[in-house]
Amino acid sequence: MLREQYEYSNDVVSYNRSLKEFCRIIPVNNLVIGWGLGFPYEHILPFDNLDYIKHFHTYPLGAFQRTKDQMKILHQYKIADLYYDMGNSDKVFLMVYSSKDESLLKVYMKEHYNIETEFSIVNHLGPRRLLKVTYK
């Protein structure tokens, strides 16, 4: 059991190190929208120095996306329509867990805006991908 705990601790530290390297690539003063399991908050250690995530904002889609704090972030980035502006702002990136998330956004944009969506991979962390969204 002690061996298992040691191996688990090593994995946690490794994931955290990967997250720090990943975050260094995100440009300063940009917004990362997390679709579903997008941003890997679970890789942040409880007593970690958070300097590596202070140069950008995250915006998780889901239950918290309409809180006052999250709405302030949208206002700061001059985002009036989250889904439309996601592909029309140089300061906004999308983080997804799988290609299924990309497919869902493509369908949503086609159904609601009649816009074709393309993705460019900026970086990846395990199965997660940081994407730049563009519309045709």
Describe the structure.
It contains four helices and five strands, in the order αββααβαββ. It has helices spanning 2-25, 68-76, 82-86, 99-113, and strands spanning 30-34, 56-60, 92-96, 117-125, 128-135. Strands 2-1-3-5-4 form a five-stranded mixed β-sheet, with helices on both faces. The radius of gyration is 16 Å and the shape is globular. 22% of the residues are buried.
Q: How many individual helices?
A: 4
- Classification by helices and strands: alpha/beta
SSE pattern, N- to C-terminal = HEEHHEHEE
Q: Give the biggest beta sheet.
A: 5 strands, mixed
Termini separation comes to 54 Å
- Please tally the β strands and state the result: 5
Helix content: 25-40%
Radius of gyration (Å): 16 Å
- Average per-residue pLDDT, rounded, comes to 89
Widest sheet, order of strands? 2-1-3-5-4
How much of the sequence is in beta strands? Answer: 15-25%
Please tell me what the overall shape is: globular
Spans of at least 5 consecutive residues with low confidence: none
**Quaternary organization:** single chain
Secondary structure layout:
Elements: H1 2-25, E1 30-34, E2 56-60, H2 68-76, H3 82-86, E3 92-96, H4 99-113, E4 117-125, E5 128-135
Parallel strand pairs: 1-2, 1-3
Antiparallel strand pairs: 3-5, 4-5
Summarize, please.
The chain is of the alpha/beta class and 136 residues long.
Features:
136 residues; alpha/beta; 5-stranded mixed beta sheet
